[in-house]
Amino acid sequence: AQTVTQSQPEMSVQEAETVTLSCTYDTSESDYYLFWYKQPPSRQMILVIRQEAYKQQNATENRFSVNFQKAAKSFSLKISDSQLGDAAMYFCASPIEGGSEKLVFGKGMKLTVNP
Amino acid sequence: EAQVTQNPRYLITVTGKKLTVTCSQNMNHEYMSWYRQDPGLGLRQIYYSMNVEVTDKGDVPEGYKVSRKEKRNFPLILESPSPNQTSLYFCASSGPGLAGAYEQYFGPGTRLTVT
């Protein structure tokens, strides 16, 4: 079975500092997207960033960026200038074998931002 | 506004009383899916549908039914709910987002408690 592993269940960061959330995955797909989702206390699942596996360049969305290591099947999320509103659960997701629309999610990581 | 809606948002019921959680999307997506979220387990897929009248089991289908008679609707049915089905449920639909990447759009979640 395809797996997505988020090894750290919880992390904390000081406001304005940088934090990196790790994720590794296992897929046999050759061309795929990877996703990070944020789940704030409202419980809504919000797409943070996506990475196209065939692109060498790491994706960036404002303060959020990815460190994508395709050979290592690693997909880390870096949050720069952390803000109180970044406090949430974060999930990474990878497609499973058989189609890019069917995703497998990691177990999530709870990020606390300290003022 | 592109969205996935779920109803009800909160539900408390008793063991054995049949219930249905509705899900609807207005993005003309072919792929729809149900997940349950439990602490420490992340999101696990219950059922998914590739198109109208095409449904298949996910990772945790036991105790659930689905139907896909129309493209926009994908209800989740619990014929005889049990306490172990107490969970947070998400409906999602998948389609091309920005730059053509397939990404999952989530509903707001349904908090189900079975006593």
Largest interface: A-B, 20 and 24 residues
Mean pLDDT of chain B: 93
**Would you identify the regions of chain A where 5 or more consecutive residues have pLDDT less than 50?**
none
SS-based class of chain B: mainly beta
Query: How many individual helices of chain A?
Result: 0
Low-confidence parts of chain B: none
Structural class of chain A: mainly beta
SSE arrangement of chain B, N to C: EEEEEEEEEEE
Order of helices and strands of chain A: EEEEEEEEEEEE
Number of separate strands of chain B? 11
Helix content of chain B: under 10%
Oligomeric state of the chains in view = heterodimer
| Overall form of chain B | globular
Describe this structure in words.
The complex is a heterodimer of chains A (115) and B (115). Chain A is built from no helices and twelve strands. Chain A has strands at residues 3-5, 10-14, 19-21, 24-26, 33-39, 46-52, 60-61, 64-69, 74-79, 88-95, 103-105, 109-114. In chain A, strands 2, 5, 6, 10, 11 and 12 form a six-stranded mixed sheet that branches. A four-stranded antiparallel sheet of chain A has the order 3-9-8-7, with no helix packed on it. In chain A, strands 1-4 form a two-stranded antiparallel sheet. Chain B has 115 residues and is mainly beta. Helices cover 0% and strands 54% of the residues of chain B. Chain B has no helices and eleven strands. In chain B, a hairpin with a 2-residue loop joins strand 5 (42-51) and strand 6 (54-57). The radius of gyration of chain B is 14 Å and the shape is globular. Chain B starts with a strand and ends with a strand. The chains are: A mainly beta (115), B mainly beta (115).
